DNA sequence: TTTTAAATGTACCCTGCATCACATAATTAT
DNA sequence: ATAATTATGTGATGCAGGGTACATTTAAAA
C-alpha cells in the first residue's frame, strides 16, 4: 500500500478528519481498500461481525431477513461508515449489507478503530454523533412504515431516493420492483400498481427503471397523509 | 447537594464507572437529581432538546407521535441513560419520554457529558456501545412490527415486558390497553380481543392489569410465527 | 441467436384488522 | 354518594393490500 495514502485521501469521514498525522499512519497500516460489484454481499446477517467498514463511494443496502420477507432498512451512500452498530453492538451481525452499485470500501481493523475512540475524543464524538443521527433516522423510518399505508410508504421511498441518495428528481432506480417493495414495505405487485397510479396522476414519469418526480409537492402530500 | 454524592452513588452507569474522582466531582457540580410521578412528561417531541438524563430508577416510555397515532418505541428501565440520540442527534427532540412509574432521574449538563466523551475514552466507548445496542434493538423492533401480524406483535410485547422489563412472568401491566396497543402496534380493541384469546388458550392468566404468562413456550412460538 | 430465467404488469379473491357502535365496568372528580 | 369521565369488552362492517394466477417483457446464459 502506498505511503500516506490515508493522509491524502479526499474521501475522509468527519471522524477521520480529526486524526493527526501519526494516527493516519496507524490507520493506513490497519486499513485495506477493495471494491465490490453490484449485488455483492459485503457482510451477512448471523455471521460473526468482523471489521468496521468505510464506504468511500457507492450505494449499499442494509437489509434484514425478517420472519416473512427481506426488509431494506436503509441505503448507505459513501462516504460513510458501514456497520458500526452491528460491529460494536454484538458479536453476531444483526443485518446484511449488499452493494447496489459498484462500491469502493476500506476495511478498518476493529482494534485500531477502538483505539481511536479511546485516545481521540473528537473522533469518538464524531462517531457518536453519527450514531445518534442514524438512530433518529431509524425511528423515523419505523414510524413512517408502521403508520402509513402503501401510497404513503412508496412516496416516502421515492422522496428518500431523490432527496437523500441521488439529490436529483430524475434517477435510475438501482433496484428491482421487488426490492423497492422491500424498502417501502409492500409487495412487488403493490409497487407496480402504485407506481403506475403515480404515473397516471402525473406525479412521476416512469420508464422501466428511469424515474422522474414531476410533482414533488403532491408526492410529499401523499407521504404526509399516509 | 451533598459532597461526593455521585462518587458513592450505587446506581452508576457502566460509563460513569469509568470516571475518576475528579471527574465524578465535576459530574456532581453539573448534575441535578429529581423525581417524576407516573404519567409525567419528562421531555417532549418537537421541543428543543436539553439535557442528558440518567434514569436512576423507574420505567419511562419513549413515544413518537406519528401521522396516525402515538407509537411507543421502547420502554427504558433505570439505571440507564435516556435521550442521548435525541440530545446529540438534533437540536429538536424527535420523540417524547413519559414516566410510567415513579421515576428518579439525574439531569446532566450536555457540556459536562460532552467533555467526558472528549477526555475519557473509556467513557466514550461505553456510551458508544450502548448506542450500538440500542440501534440493534430498534432494528429488531422495526422488523418484528413490520412483518408480524397482531398476535405475533402482542406476544412480542408481552415477552418484552416479562423478560426485559420485569424479569418475571407475573407482572402488573403499567399501562392501559390503549397504550399496550401503541406498543404492540394494534388498536385498543384488537388488544382486548387478542388478550382474551390468549387467556382462553391458557397462554396467559388475565385479571385486569395483572398478567401472568402461563405458557411461555407457546407464546414464543406465536411471536416467531408472526 | 436461441434458450432459460428473472422481472414486471394486471386481474381477482380473501383475510386481518381498523373502525364504528354500543354496553359495561372502573376511576376520578364533585 | 353521585356524577362525569375514562377504560374495557364485544359484535358487525368495510377495505387495504397480500397472495395467487397468468400474460408479457426484459435480461442473462448457453
DSSP helical segment count of chain A: 8
Portion in strands of chain A: 15-25%
The largest beta-sheet of chain A arranges its strands as: 1-8-3-6
- Determine and state the CATH class of the largest domain in chain A: Mainly Beta
Radius of gyration of chain A: 19 Å
According to DSSP, the number of beta strands of chain A is 11
CATH topology of the largest domain in chain A: Jelly Rolls
Coarse structural class of chain A = alpha+beta
Largest sheet of chain A: 4 strands, antiparallel
Sequence stretches where pLDDT stays below 50 over 5 or more residues of chain A: none
CATH architecture of the largest domain in chain A: Sandwich
Question: H/E element string of chain A?
Answer: HEEEEEEHEEHHHEHHEEH
Fraction in helix of chain A: 40-55%
Shape of chain A: elongated
Considering residues with a beta carbon less than 8 A from a beta carbon on another chain, report the largest interface and each chain's count. A-B, 50 and 50 residues
Number of domains of chain A: 2
What's the CATH superfamily of the largest domain in chain A, by name? Jelly Rolls
Could you give the distance between the termini of chain A? 51 Å
* Average pLDDT of chain A: 93
Oligomeric nature of the chains:
homodimer
Amino acid at each position: 500500500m502506498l505511503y500516506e495514502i490515508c493522509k491524502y485521501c479526499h474521501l475522509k469521514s468527519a471522524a477521520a478528519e480529526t486524526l493527526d498525522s501519526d494516527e493516519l499512519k496507524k490507520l493506513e497500516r490497519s486499513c485495506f481498500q477493495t471494491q465490490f460489484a453490484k449485488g455483492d454481499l459485503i457482510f451477512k446477517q448471523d455471521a460473526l461481525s468482523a471489521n468496521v467498514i468505510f464506504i468511500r463511494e457507492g450505494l449499499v443496502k442494509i437489509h434484514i431477513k425478517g420472519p416473512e420477507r427481506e426488509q431494506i432498512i436503509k441505503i448507505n451512500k459513501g462516504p460513510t461508515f458501514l456497520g458500526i452498530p452491528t460491529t460494536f453492538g454484538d458479536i453476531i451481525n444483526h443485518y446484511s449489507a449488499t452493494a447496489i452499485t459498484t462500491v469502493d470500501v476500506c476495511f478498518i481493523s476493529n482494534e485500531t478503530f477502538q483505539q481511536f475512540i479511546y485516545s481521540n475524543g473528537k473522533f469518538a464524538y464524531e462517531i457518536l454523533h453519527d450514531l445518534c443521527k442514524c438512530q433518529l433516522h431509524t425511528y423515523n423510518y419505523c414510524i413512517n412504515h408502521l403508520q402509513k399505508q402503501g401510497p404513503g410508504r412508496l412516496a416516502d421511498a421515492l422522496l428518500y431516493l431523490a432527496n437523500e441518495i441521488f439529490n436529483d428528481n430524475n434517477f435510475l432506480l438501482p433496484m428491482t420492483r421487488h426490492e423497492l417493495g422491500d424498502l417501502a414495505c409492500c409487495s412487488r405487485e403493490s409497487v407496480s400498481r402504485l407506481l403506475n397510479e403515480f404515473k397516471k396522476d402525473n406525479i412521476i414519469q416512469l420508464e422501466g427503471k428511469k424515474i422522474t418526480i414531476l410533482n414533488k409537492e403532491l408526492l410529499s402530500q401523499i407521504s404526509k397523509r399516509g
